[in-house]
Design a protein that fits this description.
alpha/beta, 3-stranded antiparallel sheet, Double Stranded RNA Binding Domain, 8-stranded parallel barrel
Length: about 500
């Protein structure tokens, strides 16, 4: 069975606190939604503002394949604004729980039915398709809910929707509710909120209960805890429910997700299913080894299916198989002994609380691969004089090609002075320091300092590192290590 998708990122998703999309941003999102095969796009709520109406008009003017809807209350004024925006259809939202009818609208059930029926007639008089969404349906009396739907069918409604407005359904209750409604003559949609983290589970259960359409937002954004996640539902239907299908180009899910995250400023938590940065990342040695042999061992789907790439994370849990794979990706070939040394060095850093990056790995690997090289320059001693009223001054004693040299320099700070004392020597001529980065590996005043630098000579660029409790020693050692590497090359 083909499941249709109504995406409400541009309406319900934009109700995320702090999110306000411009017309051009809404247009970009709508364009991508149409490209990837979304069936219905709720472009906004026309009654909201003039800017909202301009956005909807921009979208409706494009001739998208998707049906374009606007949210509307059962009021002629709202509907008139929708008509003015040239939408294909209206998502007519009618509260059906006694709580909403009595406390929010302050009308009777009979008056609510009249409102719904009159609004439907008005829409149909203007040749609009209508999906009637029963707001707070999950807390509504089931017999009255059916009555609202039956009346809507009598007045020409095209689709109906069950809204779990405050996310109180469970998967079992969702299946039961949709199963009770499955005899209704028009397609039934499911609109879930994620207040208890069950929106996706409830939506999938609704499909098993008889729903043929689902409402989603990209990345599950929306007010409070958000809405049903588009990417999680689409991937789940594709992989876990062979009896269902969608029209979505599933390999473009990640691009869609990143676009919405970038434009809304609502970024994705790393461990989010399908689109989170860690969704296809592996650090554990056991997992990495299994993945390399057969990705199905520790992945329920290939990352390429949803437009992703697999990552092996460098850290203390990684094994040699995953590490070797990452080294090869960086163009480094090592033997078993070198691989073990690199792995051990990574674990030493990771145990100190350091996040090991690709730059770190490159430096560690370079150091191990060059361990048998004789360095031309060796640091013997560095002394710093610095104070409140004293220009930082450094004296360094180094050995260059077995000749011991003593030199001095000044700088804006002690590190600058130490580097200047070294680089003024002829052997350092034409070597430029192009990047200098410092991290504190551990906490406290006795923290280990990790200095990573990049040096350039002609068109050759190298990275080097120094790790010490003393930032000056760490910086000087990193600088000399980089120069030695350039001189060898």
């Amino acid at each position: 069975m083909n499941i249709q998708i109504l995406d409400t990122t541009l309406r319900d998703g934009e109700q995320t606190p702090g999110v306000s999309l411009t017309t051009s941003e809404k247009f970009r999102i709508a364009t991508k939604l149409d490209e990837i095969g979304v069936d219905f796009i709720e472009a906004g709520s026309a009654i909201t503002s003039e800017g909202e109406r301009e956005s909807i008009k921009e979208i409706t003017s494009q001739g998208f394949n998707a049906e374009i809807l606007s949210f509307s209350r059962p009021l002629k004024g709202d509907i008139d604004y929708c008509i003015d925006c040239n939408v294909d259809a209206i998502n007519l939202v009618v509260p059906t729980s006694d709580l909403h009818i009595a406390e929010k609208l302050k009308v009777t059930r009979e008056e609510l039915l009249d409102l719904s029926n009159d609004a439907l007639d008005y829409c149909k008089d203007h040749d609009l398709k209508v999906e009637l969404s029963a707001e707070d349906a999950s807390r509504s009396d089931i017999d009255f809910l059916k009555l609202v739907y039956d009346n809507a069918i009598d007045h020409g409604v095209d689709r109906i929707c069950v809204c779990d407005t405050v996310g109180i359904l469970t998967p079992d209750l969702s299946f039961e509710l949709f199963n009770k409604l499955s005899g209704i003559e028009v397609p039934i949609a499911c609109h879930c909120h994620n207040d208890f983290g069950l929106a996706v589970a409830n939506t999938l259960s609704a499909l098993k209960g008889g729903a043929t359409e689902i409402h989603t937002t990209i990345n599950g954004i929306g007010e409070r805890a958000g809405n049903t996640s588009f990417e999680e539902c689409v991937a789940s239907i594709d992989r876990l429910f062979p009896q269902f299908s969608t029209n979505i180009k599933i390999n473009e899910i990640y691009d869609m997700s990143k676009l919405v995250a970038r434009l809304t400023g609502v970024y994705i938590q790393p461990n989010k299913a399908i689109v989170g940065e860690n969704a296809f990342a592996h650090e554990s040695g056991i997992h990495s080894d299994g993945i390399i042999k057969n990705s199905a061992t520790y992945e329920p789907m290939t990352p390429e299916l949803v437009g992703r790439k697999r990552k092996f994370i460098i850290g203390k849990h990684m094994g040699t198989h995953g590490l070797n794979n990452r080294l090869k990706e960086l163009g480094l070939n090592v033997d078993d002994n070198q691989l073990k040394q690199i792995c051990d060095n990574i674990k030493v850093l990771a145990d100190k609380g350091k996040t090991v990056t690709d730059v770190d790995l490159q430096v560690i690997a370079d150091n191990v691969l060059e361990i048998n090289h004789e360095d031309r320059i060796k640091l013997d001693e560095v002394t710093i004089v610095s104070g409140n009223k004293v220009m930082p001054t450094a004296s360094v004693k180094i050995t260059v090609d077995d000749e011991q040299i003593l030199n001095a320099g000044v700088g804006l700070g002690p590190v600058d002075a130490a580097i200047n004392a070294i680089k003024s020597l002829d052997i350092f001529k034409d070597i430029d320091l192009i990047e200098y980065h410092v991290d504190s590996i551990t906490g406290g005043t006795d923290a280990f300092i990790d200095v990573i630098i990049k040096l350039q000579k002609a068109d050759k660029v190298v990275s080097a590192r120094g790790t010490e409790a003393d930032i000056i020693n760490a910086s000087v050692k990193a600088y000399i290590a980089g120069v030695n590497r350039l001189l060898r090359d």
